[in-house]
Write a structure and sequence with these properties.
The complex is a heterodimer of chains A (about 400) and B (about 1000). Helices cover about 55% and strands about 10% of the residues of chain A. Chain A is an alpha+beta fold and about 400 residues long. In chain A, α2 packs antiparallel against α4 and α5 packs parallel to α7. Chain A is globular and about 110 Å long. With about 1000 residues, chain B is mainly beta. Chain B has 2 domains: about 80 residues, Immunoglobulins (Immunoglobulin-like), CATH 2.60.40; about 650 residues, TonB-dependent receptor, beta-barrel domain (Maltoporin, Chain A), CATH 2.40.170. Chain B has 11 helices and 54 strands. In chain B, α9 crosses α10. The two termini of chain B are about 45 Å apart. Classes of the chains: A alpha+beta (about 400), B mainly beta (about 1000). At the A-B interface, α1, β1, α2, α3 and α4 of A face β27, β28, β29, β30 and β33 of B. β1 of chain A pairs antiparallel with β33 of chain B, so a sheet runs across the interface.
């Protein structure tokens, strides 16, 4: 009997082993994700392109707000109802910890933008395209946003308070070194120049405007003029990041109707008070403070819906760059004409004179909420905080913890 | 049909003896306590051969009728007493057998679970086993959930809620938590069904309340639980395989018991509990920016619980059924649990070799969660941080923000045991645990909430189905007359299907209509789905030599689902040995029992469903359409992790009434699956990446001492002491960088214990003239990595812990019992105080700044509205520069900074948090004696009333209100972090128990 039971038990065990193996494999697949290999197909490339654009929108809107906060464009004041984030206070004070968790989210998002773009470029090489236009769009997207990501690193991130630059890691097992802005900007330009080869006329002008901006930030004025001359022109639509209720414009979420943690510096209210027509480009609305007696603050009223788009490049910026270059070349009349053309586009009266102070003020007003005040303060030497304060966002604690190059 | 033809004659044969033996007899008698002589109501008397039996009535009397005359074995059992088994020759007519049971003070007789298909008495067990007699505990006290039933009762296991929320999640800490993978939670079975032990927070899905979740174990009615067995580590749980890598908790619900006497032929038990959850300690200026406002949100939360059960049956069928209605309000507004549960358990013996069991429980539970923790809508966030209240959200808005979860749960199992031949027992069971949860969160449109335009409505649905299949065969035989053997083979399979969906809308025109469709603005909607299976086969060989030496060898092969790859599989071996020294050598007569045991086992963790993927992409809605974004980063080379455990121990009984149990264990985790964060510059941060690089060790000692030194008719004293020590160390991360979690405060790092606090702190510097010159970091960059070095700041869990229980019976029927428990070596990160300091309301810092001349008293908030210094601060003055008091105050100022040179000074806010609590105390009076004397026992079988309390007293080093909290709930790697988290309440109960 014992032998029989032993035999039966052995047969039972072996049967059960086989049954277990097949049992665990019969499961339904996840419905919310697909494997990477499934994207390497021409039919999925539009889906991939959209993903990059989506990540651009969730990166740029935050950069614009945080850059405004670090600069003298926005202020964080706990007398403003619902202004609570210590991470925002750190930015406003220029005393930003590496572990600032608001910055964490943006830094991760920027990393994804760079990776998604570069990853598409790799994927393009593995796909056999039948649709040449799609292939061209993919190549434009991958290079353009790859360039934008590198530009963001160079312009907005830093190793220390004033040492701009970022990190690019191609292999997660071997994180890359710190790349100073002086080297990161050329990497951005390489990508943008590559994108130009696949761009239509409008996007070629957008690229040129961005290239001009990068050269201007670096002080390469002749290259900046050369690029800006092929940049956006009056009548060109703004190049924007697009948003929806689900992918909300961050200005709405943290510096607008949704929640006003950030309000604008009081001098913007002064600009509008001095010339109400300025309200056409500096849209403000009151916020009543919770102090006693209450202080009246002002927040931006430009992005009034969750899905309001946010301009990234405009023809007005291109004209302002040309005006600056005119001034640097001693052509004040040319600069004034350009400035007045811009003002006229908003219904604001013409100025009589143009000089660098006027130009800086025009940039401050015209480029309101576009995140450009921060690099302008750096390059014009108008830093508003004390020595040792952050003029960039710091490369995050998370990067420093994980990346052995730090 | 052929089987039926075979069975029918067999059934006929079984009936033959009954027909042939026409003469029957009746067996009756009294069951008493051998020491006190008191009757033992409820004691079970069983005629082993016929499986017929009876329970003793209130006077200890029993009667079994209709027994064919003959020779039988009569077994008498009762919880807490050594069982008795004796031969008895039954003649026709009346027979009397009185039995006196000896108390089993040390529990050696108790049959406990020792493995997946094995159970034995503690006297023979080869592994450290723990059983909590929940039924007995609840006679003496009231418990609101499973964590309360377990905490302080089991050596090596702590079970704690992460906040004072009613219905919240609980965290098990099993031994040294050596495995680096996951949250370290054990698998939990109820009547053989692997149950959903999730803590659902709804984080990111619109129904989060700041950090705390809804615990799925809150859906179980503790009154239904008979016992809880715990296998604490791989040495005991190896044959549970992967699912048992963090230990196994086996909950057994009550079964039908034969009624003994009483007004009805079954047991009816009613238990009514009435009480209150109270704020343990009021906030003060030291702990809150606006203490009066904070305290005003607290209340005496009502507890009203009614449970009734029926239990009974016959020799063929036994049943237990219960209904519970439990309403419990938390000690803060907007926190409550309203639970109804039903249970029906049946056990049938259709023929002598077959046992059929069916258990079914159904629960309807509504849990209201309060807003707290990391949350601008929280009660505590709006009252503790700043010197004026409601800086984020108005009090009316906080009170009217509702979050309600409605949960229905069906938990059922069916089990058949069949003994086809002598000594071969086949057992098959199938179980189902289905939980439906719906959570609604509503921000009324007529109130103001940051980020919500005209109100918001969030809904969240979760459905979790778990199927457990179990089959095993157990064959017992003698290899030689001296060697008993038992062979076990079996298989287990587990199937889980999980779905969630959520939706959010805003912009409601009226607060009177809150359905989702009434919101004008769509915000988000999503769903998710998971299907996962596990299966394993196992074999075990048990050998016992002359009741002296016990040896077990076993092995299990486990499989788990994975997407896109072949299912991973792994072998887990085990071996264990016990030596009954008292049977082998002559011991001093004071030593009644001595057993040494050793056990080794391996379990582990198989990679998760997606872990073997390369990259997985999801669709993200955007202004451009839905685009591909990275969602999960896997590792195609991932392998199973393995945890090994060696356990050595002894059990002894001294003087017949002192029990001593000692266990030493050591655990090794190898190839641990650790989730690493990629460098953000890689762009691959959508998820952490699993790697097999972890190696860690842990060890610990568990000791328990029980004693019942005095037991007389009118007075009894027994006590128990549990002491645990555990430590672990991460030994190898394969050269990888440390992994940080929480607010960058905790780390997994080579050379440190898991999740150690590892960050920076500051200290004071002074000018030449002795004035305070500001704070500096306490460390420099000695390792040359470009940033100041971090320091170890303690552990978010204790290294020493324990409990002391005492039970005093006096005046015969009064019972006073108490339980103290403590944790030593525990640290807590007080992020509440850190944020209070950020908002300028942290009083110790403000006082210190006055003392070093940085602030005037009124600037420090020490004055009334008329700028007069409040009397309690009248002696706060500026110290003279250079004096010891000045230096001390300056150090306080420096140590309450929160940032320096770009690093967070979280170390300044990590505190020692050792504590001791009077966790339970109760006074019970048992009227059963009176009832018997008054001859009411035909109407009422038992009656008792109890006054009890929980968390009545605490002493702690922690300066916050409560050391047992965690603001991210009960599952996160962040632990012991206090951030506006609701403290545990003091609970008072009045309980009445009536048995008919």
């Amino acid at each position: 009997m014992r032998q029989l039971i032993t035999l039966l038990a052995t047969v039972l065990l072996l049967t059960m082993v086989g049954a277990c193996d097949s049992f665990v494999e019969e499961v339904d697949l996840p419905i919310d994700t697909i494997d990477d290999s499934q994207l390497t197909d021409e039919s999925q490339i539009p889906f991939v392109i959209t993903g990059i654009q989506s990540r651009f929108s969730t990166t740029y809107d935050r950069i614009a707000v945080f850059a405004g906060g670090i600069s003298d464009e926005l202020i964080f004041d706990q007398r403003v109802p619902n202004a609570t984030f210590p991470s925002f206070k750190e930015m406003d004070d220029g005393d930003i910890t590496f572990a600032n968790n608001s910055n964490d989210g943006l830094y991760n998002s920027l990393g994804e933008l760079r990776f998604f773009a570069d990853n598409l470029l790799t994927r393009i090489g593995e796909v056999t395209f039948e649709d040449a236009a799609l292939q061209q769009e993919a190549q434009f997207t991958a290079n353009f946003y790859g360039g934008v990501a590198r530009y963001f690193y160079a312009a907005y991130y830093a190793l220390s308070q004033t040492e701009g630059g970022g990190v690019i890691t191609d292999d997660p097992a071997n994180p890359g070194p710190f790349v100073p802005s002086a080297q990161m900007y050329p990497l951005a330009l390489d990508k943008l120049n590559a994108a130009r080869g696949f761009a239509d006329d409008y996007h070629t002008r957008v690229i040129n405007t961005l290239v001009a901006r990068i050269h201007l930030f670096q002080g390469n004025f002749s290259e900046a003029r050369s690029a800006a001359q092929g940049g956006m022109v009056a009548g060109d639509a703004d190049f924007e990041s697009l948003h929806t209720p689900e992918n909300t414009n961050y200005w709405y979420v943290q510096a607008g109707e949704g929640r006003h943690q950030w309000v604008v510096d009081f001098r913007y209210k002064g600009y509008v008070d001095a010339d109400p027509a300025e309200g056409n480009r500096i849209q403000l609305i009151e916020v009543i403070g919770n102090d006693d007696p209450p202080t009246t603050f002002y927040r931006q009223d430009r992005y009034v819906e969750r899905g309001t788009p946010l301009p990234f490049s405009t023809w007005q910026e291109n004209e302002l760059m040309l005006a600056e270059l005119d001034l640097r070349d001693g052509n004040a009349a040319g600069a004034l004409a350009r400035i007045n053309a811009i003002r006229d586009s908003h219904g604001i009266g013409a100025l009589a004179d143009a000089n660098m102070d006027v130009l800086q003020l025009e940039r401050e007003k015209e480029l309101f909420t576009m995140g450009l005040r921060l690099p302008d303060q750096r390059r014009f030497g108008t830093w508003h905080l004390g020595a040792g304060t952050w003029q960039f966002l710091p490369i995050t604690q998370s990067e420093r913890n994980i990346n052995p190059n730090f | 049909m052929r089987t039926l033809r075979t069975l029918l004659p067999l059934l006929g044969l079984l009936l033959v003896p009954g027909l042939a033996l026409a003469q029957t007899g009746t067996l009756s008698g009294t069951i008493t306590d051998a020491e006190s002589g008191d009757p033992l109501p409820g004691a079970n008397v069983l005629i082993v051969e016929t499986a017929s039996g009876a329970a003793a009535d209130i006077d200890g009397n029993y009667t079994i009728t209709g027994i064919p005359t003959g020779s039988y074995t009569v077994r008498v059992t009762f919880i807490g007493f050594k069982s008795s088994e004796q031969a008895y020759s039954l003649s026709s007519g009346s027979n009397t057998l009185d039995v006196a049971l000896a108390p089993d003070y040390t529990g050696l007789e108790e049959v406990v679970v020792t493995g997946i298909a094995s159970s034995t008495s503690k006297a023979r067990a080869e592994v450290a086993v723990s059983r909590v007699d929940a039924s007995k505990l609840q006679e003496q006290n009231s418990y609101q959930d499973i964590s309360q039933l377990l905490n302080g009762k089991v050596a090596g296991v702590s079970v704690q809620p992460s906040s004072g929320n009613v219905g919240g999640g609980i965290r098990f800490v099993m031994r040294s938590s050596t495995g680096l993978n996951g949250s370290g939670q054990p698998v939990i079975y109820v009547d053989g069904v692997r149950v959903d032990n999730a803590q659902v927070t709804g984080g990111g899905l619109g129904v989060a309340v700041g950090g705390q979740g809804v615990g799925m174990l809150a859906n179980l009615n503790p009154e239904d639980i008979e016992s809880i067995d715990i296998l604490k580590g791989p040495a005991g749980a190896a044959l549970y395989g992967t699912s048992g890598s963090n230990g196994v908790v086996l909950i057994t619900t009550k079964r039908g018991k034969l009624a003994g006497g009483g007004v009805v032929p079954f047991n009816v038990n009613y238990k009514g509990v009435f009480g209150a959850n109270q704020q343990f300690e009021e906030y003060t200026r030291e702990t809150a920016g606006t203490p009066e406002t904070a305290n005003a949100f607290f209340r005496d939360g009502q507890i009203a619980k009614h449970s009734i059960s029926l239990s009974g049956g016959s020799d063929d069928v036994r049943y237990f059924t219960s209904y519970e209605k439990s309403l419990e309000e938390g000690h803060i507004n907007n926190n409550a649990q309203d639970r109804q549960s039903f249970r029906a358990n049946f056990e049938a013996f259709p023929v002598s070799k077959v046992t059929v069991r069916a258990n079914a429980g159904y629960t309807l539970n509504e849990i209201d969660r309060p807003q707290n923790d990391n949350n601008i809508f929280g009660y505590l966030g709006n009252t503790l941080l700043a010197s004026s209240p409601f800086i984020f959200t108005d009090s009316t808005a906080i009170e009217n923000l509702t979050n309600r979860s409605r949960i229905t749960r069906f938990l059922a199992s069916a089990e058949v045991e069949y003994q086809p031949i002598e000594n071969l027992r086949l057992r098959a069971s199938v179980g189902f645990d289905g939980t439906d949860m719906r959570a609604d969160q509503t921000y009324p449109s007529n109130l103001s909430y940051s980020g919500r335009t005209n109100g918001e409505r969030n809904i969240f649905n979760r459905r979790n189905e778990q199927y457990t299949y179990d089959f095993n065969a157990r064959y017992s035989y003698n290899i030689t007359p001296a060697i008993e053997a038992t062979s076990i083979v079996g298989t287990q399979a587990f199937n889980r299907i999980w779905r969630i969906s959520n939706a959010t809308k805003q912009n409601f025109s009226t607060e009177l209509i809150t359905n989702l469709g009434a919101g004008a603005d769509f915000i988000t909607a999503d769903e998710d789905f998971l299907h996962q299976r596990e299966a394993g086969v196992f074999g075990q060989q048990e050998l016992a030599f002359q009741n002296k030496i016990f040896l077990t060898l076993g092995v299990r092969r486990d499989f788990a689902s994975t997407v896109g790859e072949q299912a991973p599989a792994i072998w887990y071996p085990k071996a264990s040995l016990a030596l009954r020294m008292d049977q082998m050598i002559n011991l001093p007569r004071q030593v009644n029992f001595l057993k040494f045991r050793a056990a080794y086992g391996e379990t582990g963790q198989l990679p998760g469903l997606l872990d073997g993927s390369f990259l997985r992409w999801a669709a993200e809605p955007s202004g451009y359409g839905a685009g591909a974004v990275l969602d999960f980063i896997g590792n195609v080379e991932i392998e199973p992790e393995r945890i090994r455990e060696l356990e050595l121990g002894l059990e002894s009984e001294l003087f017949n009434n002192v029990g001593l149990e000692l266990t030493y264990y050591k655990q090794w985790a190898k190839n641990s699956i650790i989730d690493f964060e990629n460098a953000p510059s890689s762009g691959q941060t959508a998820s952490d990446v699993p790697f097999n690089v972890g190696e860690s060790q842990g060890w610990g000692i568990e000791a328990s001492l029980t004693a019942a030194p005095i037991q007389t008719r009118n007075f009894g004293l027994d006590f128990g002491l549990i002491w645990n020590y555990a430590e672990n160390e991460v030994q190898d991360l394969g050269g990888a960088q440390p992994i940080f979690s929480g607010f960058d405060t905790q780390v997994i790092k080579e050379g440190l214990p898991r999740d150690a606090f590892y960050t920076w702190s500051s200290r004071a510097t002074f000018n030449d003239d002795g004035t305070y010159a500001g704070a500096e970091l306490t460390t420099t960059d000695e390792d040359g990595d470009g940033e100041p070095d971090r320091q170890f700041f303690g552990l978010p869990y204790p290294d020493h812990s324990g409990s002391f229980t005492a039970n005093v019976r006096f005046l015969k029927n009064f019972n006073l019992s108490g339980l103290f428990d403590w944790s030593l070596g525990l640290s807590v990160y007080n992020n509440t105080f850190l944020f209070s300091r950020r908002f300028g309301a942290y009083l110790p810092r403000n006082i210190a700044r006055v003392q070093i001349g940085q602030l005037e008293p009124c600037q420090a908030g020490l004055c009334d509205d008329n700028d007069n210094v409040l009397p309690e601060y009248a002696d706060i003055t500026e110290f003279s520069v250079g004096s010891p008091e000045y230096i001390e105050a300056a150090e306080v100022v420096a140590a309450t900074e929160f940032t320096n040179s770009g690093v967070d000074l979280d170390g300044n806010w990590i505190e020692e948090a050792d504590f001791i609590k009077l966790r339970e105390i109760s006074l019970r009076y048992d009227f059963t004696d009176l009832i018997r004397k008054a001859q009411f026992s035909n109407y009422v079988r038992s009656l008792s009333i109890t006054l009890s309390a929980r968390n009545l007293w605490m002493s702690t080093k922690y300066s916050g209100p409560e050391p047992e909290v965690n603001f991210t709930g009960a599952r996160s790697s962040t632990r012991s972090s206090d951030f506006l988290t609701l403290p545990q309440p003091r609970v008072l109960y009045f309980t009445i128990n009536v048995g008919l």
